[in-house]
Write a structure and sequence with these properties.
Blueprint (H helix, E strand, L loop, with lengths): L16 E3 L9 E6 L10 E3 L8 H14 L14
Length: about 80
């Protein structure tokens, strides 16, 4: 997964940020991408420290960026009333 981030889909901000809250007292760790202008955010990506797999932080950061870059497809035009 590339670290190329898309701009914010709502305000166009070109510099979203990766949010990694202080996880000192949390069982599940969460990371997400957030727009600093309009505060839009991606879905949080969760990681449990007991899940022992290679490179957890690099992986979860990559997941967060992927979630941010994911865009919903536009709905197809309505076919009602056309002939």
């Amino acid at each position: 997964m590339s670290d190329d981030w898309k701009p914010c889909p709502f305000c166009g901000n070109q510099h979203p940020r990766l949010v990694e809250p202080n996880h000192a007292s949390m069982t599940w760790l969460k990371v997400w991408v957030e727009c600093g202008e309009c505060e839009a955010r991606s879905e949080p990506q969760n990681y449990h420290p007991a899940d022992d797999y290679e490179g957890p932080w690099a992986t979860i950061r990559s997941w967060a960026i992927e979630a941010w870059n994911r865009r919903a497809l536009p709905s197809p035009p309505s076919q009602e009333g056309t002939r």
